[in-house]
Design a protein that fits this description.
Elements (H helix, E strand, L loop, with lengths): L1 H14 L7 H26 L13 H12 L9 H12 L6 H4 L2 H9 L7 H12 L20
Helix pairs in contact: 1-2, 3-4, 3-7
Length: 154
């Protein structure tokens, strides 16, 4: 986070109109700064990538959201689940098309671990998920997700 703050400060310094430098120096400094920034952004993307299916943004279509709530969160297997388990199940279904293929291959195990049940107990829930997901387009309009990088956000 400190490195990111240094980059933000440097960005302001480079763009400060009161600093007098030649055009050539400005663009050389800007290129170095952009290269550093790309490295940090790539590191953040690498860190977030395994969890990226949680961030595509909420689907705008109220009908789809209500179907997920009714069919998935209303499923008997989730009756005693915690709020965080329900939230993760909701996000899992809403963003199913963004889940990495290797995770889709072990979805039953993943759901069983998430809900703290035996894998053989989730077959009906998995069938329900597959039916709900069929009606969600990967291109469905979504509200944007904004990630805020700040020391004050905890």
């Amino acid at each position: 986070m400190e490195e990111f703050q240094v980059l933000l400060d440097k960005n302001l310094a480079i763009s400060d109109e009161t600093t007098v430098i030649s055009r050539r120096e400005y663009w050389a400094e800007r290129a170095r700064h952009n290269e550093t920034m790309e490295g940090i952004i790539q590191a953040m993307e690498d860190w977030v990538k395994p969890w990226s299916f949680l961030f595509p943004g909420r689907i705008k279509d109220e009908k789809i959201r209500k179907t997920i709530q009714k069919e998935i969160l209303g499923h008997p297997l989730l009756k005693k689940s915690s709020e965080i388990q329900k939230l993760l199940m909701y996000r899992l279904v809403e963003n199913y098309h963004f889940i990495p293929q290797r995770l889709q291959l072990v979805m039953s195990s993943f759901i069983a671990k998430l809900l703290e049940v035996r894998e053989e107990d989730i077959s009906d829930l998995k069938f329900t998920i597959e039916n709900v997901v069929k009606n969600i387009s990967a291109d469905a309009p979504r509200h944007p997700t904004v990630l805020i990088l700040d020391n004050q956000v905890r």
